[in-house]
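Subject: Sanity check before I submit

Could someone independently write out the structure tokens for this chain? I want to compare against mine line by line before I put it in a report. The sequence has 262 residues.
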Amino acid sequence: MIDLSLHNRRALVCGSTQGIGRASALMMAECGADIVLMARNPESLETVRHEVSGFGVSCDVVVADFSDPSQVAERIDTYTSSHAGFDILVNNTGGPPAGPIASASVDDFLKAFNSHLINNHILVQATLPGMKERSFGRIVNIVSTSVREPIPGIGVSNTTRGAVASWAKTLSKEVAPFGITVNNVLPGATQTGRIDALIKSKAAKSGKSEDQVEQDLVSAIPVGRFAGPFEIAAAVVFLSSDHAAYITGVSLPVDGGRLNSI
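---
Independent answer below. Compare away.
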């Protein structure tokens, strides 16, 4: 029997006030990990902190807006200067707005790269020293199936996610000798605010109803439904566990079979 215990581990979970980030924090706490939540909304962070604490683990919060990398760097440096280091880092934040790539502005790309790639890198540099000292680390990036197959209508996101995947693969090779793994989870369509926003956008542009757009999306998924956030979180927890020590540098689709690529 596989025991996914995360006792005596500390996890920094980003974007943890809703969706996949919240689900990952709660599932890790259930497995015994102490949690540090990082997001921009103080009230929502306190709500999730209360939920996490219900599992009998410690839980801190770090308030930072991922649209401002300098703030992210300052807040995580302040926290790590007076607290123990981390064993697990879950990089996660909301995706860029939908739209065709040809009409995207340079600023659209810069905002997306800052929110995702640059902040991921800042957080890795802040947490890596502690992981190296422990000879243990798990870095899990929540990305997208667009790493494997670009998704029509979200050009900036496709570009940014691909860059994150290449960054993660490169990093995985550098840190592997220290007992640190780096992996990407690629969620398919998941029942979160992100999918709701995409449905609304597609409906507005296509003239279809939101129900029809949703049905079209579901029809492309072999299992016939969207994922729940905790189904994605289950992959995050496994990749964060001792059992995943020999898995690194991979991009794992959790998409109900939608991808056509092998």
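---
OP: Matches mine. For the report I'm noting this point. The CA atoms of residues 97 and 136 lie 36 Å apart.
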